[in-house]
Amino acid sequence: MDTATSVRDLLFTLLLKVGVASSIAALLARWTTFRRVLFTEQREPDQKLKLMLFLTPALIVGVTLRLVGGPAYAFADLSLEGAFLMGLLGGRVVGPIGGAIITIPALISHEWLAMPAASTAGLLGGLIRQAIPNKEDLWNFGPFTFLNIPKATMRLLRKAELSWEMAPLGACVGLELGRVALVLATTKPKWLFAVDSHWDWWLVLVVIATLMSVASPLKIWNNTRVEMNLEQHQQLLLKARMDALSSQINPHFLFNTLNTVSALIRFDPDSARGVVLKLSNILRRLLRKHETFVPLREELQFIDDYLDIEVARFGKDNLDIVKHIDEAALEAFVPSMLLQPMVENCLKHGLAPKLGGGKIELRTTNSDGRLRIEIEDNGVGISEEKMPHVYVEGIGLSNVRERLRVLYGTDFHLDIESRPGEGTVIRIEIPELVSTMQEVG
Is the pLDDT of residue 316 over 90? Predict the structure, then answer.
């Protein structure tokens, strides 16, 4: 075989080697359990075991494929690189054990130095992990870290500060050179495999391929960690926003309720006692662990307590409550504290200014995967001048709209229709969620 053909075959093998390492890393990153293991920097023993169980099967298959397929499948053997990676991620116990496991097929084929070499690589990775003060610095090691060698050298000379991403780089170079040296030092039959076992300038490409086979998986997994970190922060931000909105709604509701109790105590202590009992039910609900979603049945029970207080305030003859509830909708989940601000809006802007009695109708329907809720009053209505303030700036309804936007994005509708002198209708349409609810945060 001529030199050109040999060079072409070597380049092809090295490219395939890096490609296989990157492909395995990308496939593993799709597993939720593996992603959790990556995201946790301080790993428990069970997580280290999971890390080893995820990595070793593919690496064993690669070694076996190289042994069965011969030189054409030399790219599949990632035993040294895989053991070193397990040491970097799992520590000085996982690395050597993992390295020993993945080289069992090579040991069976009488490659006697394969297991000691892989275990040494795993131990070296574990020692590097132990030596680095901030474990996050490991993830700075990438395919092109070698370009930072001049900068790291100047930093060491001027500030006496180590660039810890250089440690994995130097280890990879040392491991590949040491492997080639061992291959050349052993007599036939060879006791250790190397892609290219000659001291020539092509060895530079082999070393670079080894670097890439370690750095590429780290870079892929680091991107996965960054995505998970962003997702976690988004969830925390969402929870913080929801808590902030709820903290605005609850005091507003309690303020009005306590005013009602204060007014009743003056002329009807018995009714005030009943209101206090209803208020205790409401407070018990509010003081429970924060729930983003609750069944509509529970939300209606909450509204019943609230309306009982308002009936006591307005008088049984002055406030009529009518409900038209679709039984199929009772188990659907709705945002907690969804109905109360809207009912309060009807009382405050519709019925309170009206002389004489008033009526509130609550209607729910459930069809085509959508839950529709309507709250209508026959009060004084809202004038066109006041509508923007109620619809956008009002504490209750503006927060309801914001909560719906946070929870459903654009997949909801909130409309207010008011006819001065006739009444107001508030309509909400949201997706029907029944059995797959997940709380925010």
Answer: no
Report DSSP state, residue 433: B
Kindly state whether residues 171 and 291 are assigned to the same domain: no
CATH of residue 390's domain is 3.30.565.10
The answer to whether residue 99 scores a pLDDT higher than 70 is: yes
How far apart CA 40 and CA 10 sit, in angstroms, is: 38
Question: Any alpha helices (H) in 40-148, and if so which ranges?
Answer: 45-69, 79-90, 94-102, 104-108, 114-131
Do residue 311 and residue 382 come from a single domain?
A: yes
- Do residues 187 and 107 touch, judged by C-beta distance below 8 A? no
pLDDT tens digits, residue range 342-353?
887 787 777 877
Q: Tell me how crowded residue 440 is: count the other CB atoms within 10 A of its CB.
A: 17
Beta partners for residue 427, in sequence order: 374, 415
| Radius of gyration (C-alpha) of the chain in whole angstroms | 34
Q: How far apart are the first and last CA of the chain?
A: 63
Distance, in Å, from the CA atom of 169 to the CA atom of 55, rounded to the nearest integer, reads 21
Residue 358 token pair: 């008033």
Task: Decide if 250 contacts 283 (C-beta within 8 A).
Answer: no
Write the burial class of residue 226 (CB in 10 Å: 0-12 exposed, 13-18 middle, 19+ buried). Answer: exposed
Q: Which domain holds residue 116?
A: 3-232
Other beta carbons within 10 angstroms of residue 176's beta carbon come to 24
429 contacts 404 by C-beta, under 8 angstroms: no
**284 contacts: CB under 8 Å, gap ≥ 6:** none
Q: Alpha carbon 71 to chain centroid distance? A: 43
Residue type, 240: A
Domains of the chain: total? 2
Question: How far apart (Å, rounded) are the C-alpha atoms in residues 431 and 433?
Answer: 6
Among all chains, which residue has been given the structure tokens 């090691």? 141
- Give per-residue pLDDT as tens, 233-290: 776 666 666 565 555 455 656 776 677 777 777 777 777 788 788 878 877 776 665 6
